[in-house]
Every structure is written in C-alpha cells, then in structure tokens.
Predict the structure.
Amino acid sequence: MLEIVEHISLKPFNSFGVEASARWFVEINSEADLAELFTDERWRNEEILILGGGSNILLTKDFEGLAIRMNILGLEYESRGDQVYLTAGAGVKWNDLVNYSVDHNFYGIENMSLIPGSVGASPIQNIGAYGVELNDVFFSCRAFERNTGLIRTFSNSDCKFGYRDSVFKSSLKGKYIITSVTIDLSLIPRFNLKYGAIQQELNNRGVREPTIKDISQVVSHIRVSKLPDPSTIGNAGSFFKNPVVSVDQFRHLQSTFPDIIHFEAENGMEKISAGWMIEKCGWKGKSIGETGTWKNQALVIVNHGNATGSDIYDLSSAIISDVAKLFGIILDREVNIF
C-alpha cells in the first residue's frame, strides 16, 4: 500500500538545499506502484513534480501538487556481439551507472562521469559532458503514461533529442513518467578526448594509452576542480545552457572579443561558452546576500546557506540581463524552475 504523506519539506530532495514544501509526497519503487497511484483519478489531474536526485530543479515556492520521488532501482545488461545494452531503473544514480559501465569495460559514457542526478532524468535533459551526450548512447526508455496507466517504450528518434532538450520537456511534458533507461554501449573502446582538458590532463599524468578508468578518473578530476560538491554547498551544477549561434553571429562576436571560448555545434553552428560570457560580465565568484556564482566556474550558481529559491532565481535574472547587454545573447536556464 502506497503511503502518501502531506506537507513534507523538500529541502532534502533538491541539491540547492532551498526550503520548500510539497502538499503531498509519495515514493515510487516499481512500475506497479505507479499503476496503483494513478488508479485514483484524483492524481491524474493533479500537478506533479518528479524528483530523482533533485540536481536540476529550483524551487521558488511551495509545491501545491503531488511530489513523486522515483526510487526504482536495478541494473542489468544484455550483450549482442560487440554491443552491450545496459538497463537501469529511473532511481539509479547516474554516476553509479557510469561506474558500473567503467568497471565492466562497457565503453561510451566514461566522459559523463560524476554528472549528478538520477537515470530517470537523463533523457528529459539529454544530459551531456565533455563531448558526449545521452542521445549518443541512448537506445530506449520505458515510461508510464499518467492518463492511461500504460507503459510505452520510446526509441531514440521518439525522444526528439536536442541540446539539453527532449520531447519530455515540450509536447509530452508532464504526461509520462520515465521508469527505466536502456543505453547502447560497446565492448570496443572509442574514446573522445577532444573536449575540454581531457587530453592535457592525460598528458600531465603521463598516460599515453588511456584505459576507460583513466578517462573516467580524469573527467572526475576536472569536474571536481571546477564544480562545487552539492553535499557541502547547495548548487545544481551548470545553471545555464551554452548558447548556439550562427557562424555569422559568432564571427561578429569574435571580432569584438578575440578570446571568446567556443565549440563547433551541429549544422554549421557555433556553441559559445556561457560561463566565459558570465565571467566577462564580472559575475565569477560574486555573491549577493546568501547566493552567488561559484569561485571556480561562473556557470554555477550556489546557495551559501540560507538563500531562497526566489533569491537564486533573481540572481540568474540579473546575470541574463548583463549578458544580454554585453553580448546581445539571451541565456536560457538549464535548471527547471518550479
């Protein structure tokens, strides 16, 4: 029997550590739990908040609907030739999935080491880091449809992945709850060392023929050196998306800012470093009240202790305004706002 709790604090369930409460709260441990929950029509039309690791949300007020904590666990895989299909429950921590794949020499997600959050959130955001995105390895996911109680399997193409985007953030937002994800990995190493400082750090360590563990350890080291630990200071990792612009717009910016940090994007576009722009606007390491940006990475907004969700949102708005004034680019928030 599911236990639905009333008026529960969500502070332990969001990595910003801001105080907010949920009118109702329930923990889900299986697809059967979801089926049981939504047999009650009361919840079919109620606003819901899906909680995994809580690492990509900002709560700006109390939530008056039903908060669902996804705790479906389990890891299993199937080998087909050189391919490995690895399936994880939505409640599995993403980094636990990465560590499992690294320990078994399943290649493909080692560049995504130490990304916070849960597996269930990964297709929604199309998470990515250091030149690899989920859509590069995503095979399918199972998702529960609220209105019908049916389980649907989504293929890679069904998800309509984009940069930190998917169908679950647009036309199907709030309609499905992801219960498990299957990724397509390889038994043959094909490392991506071009992004960021991976190759430089390998050189520093004297590693000429890196293993999958070498890559994972180097990526983890780079992330730790730049990003704050949510267990010691509240944050949600990268708060803004890196904007993607046309080549013409990029060249115009480059003529004014020769040191602009950029990366090639799809379809002949250019991706501009949002962190670089924010730093250029003087925000790196700056604090206002109980919130501010991280001292080592301007892309990260932090809670120094007692910031409210509104404090953090207002700071992000001020950053967006300053970047727009200097660069003519409107930053998009990567974090989901509630």
Q: What stands out?
A: The mean pLDDT is 95. DSSP finds nine helices and 20 strands in the chain. Residues 112 and 143 are 23 Å apart (CA to CA). The first helix runs from residue 31 to 37.
